[in-house]
Amino acid sequence: MSDLPFILFSLVAAWAAIMVVTRAVAVHALLYLVVVPLSLAGVFFTLGAPFAAMLEVIIYAGAVMVLFVFVVMMLNLGRSDRDRERHWMAPAVWIGPALLSGLLLIALCITLRTIPPTAASDAMVPIGPQSVGLLLYGPYVLSVELASFLLLAGLVSAFHIGRNIRGTGTGEP
Amino acid sequence: MSAASPTHALLLATLLFAVGMLGVLARRNLLLMLMSIEIMLNAAALAFIAAGARWHAAQGQVMFLMILSLAAAEAAVGLAIILRLHSAGRPTLDADTGNRLKG
To answer: TM segments (chain B) (predicted)?
Structure first.
């Protein structure tokens, strides 16, 4: 049955996301967060987007998660942090956010019912990297330039924020 | 109808977005809030991919690339701000103390 990978990847992604949100130890949440893009890459693959799946594995599960791992290592979290997180995660805290998220979920599900279903025959034709690349360097070349501007701005601002981080420079107590 | 249809992928994206929003709203640790934002960005990317598969268009993957670069820049800047907060004497990373950031 060809739908089994999609269902499995979806269950893994949803379960890992729920575990990320509810863990008290930051390292545990981070390890579950690595599972989310990996399983989503599987979902992309079953949806017929192998290029996006590989990019998800390389950039999300590779580069971005390595950034998170480095920061969690540098923060040096310990037992007191875990106890404080447990204190912050009292059950009364979750009522309002759970209500809001549940409302959003219900509203979006009702909206999704209005989408007409696809014909099952031509549903899963893969869209390869060639057509994506032709679009990227054809009509969407301006947005590629804007994305590079965004990355440059992120680089510059991360450098600016992160310099003199040990308190030897200006403006640091 | 096949279970791997784009509509079901959109349902998964909705669920992931709701879970990420729950994390952003309920957690007080800035690091966990950033992780929840990553989940929400993943959900948006999944919605674009599913829409691209629904209408057989490669534009969904083009938008996925834009979301990917946005997520990379956002993670870099957000984690730099978190390190700055941590080294500036607020090791609890409580989101309520972020208003005293300067520089």
So the answer is: 6-27, 39-57, 63-83
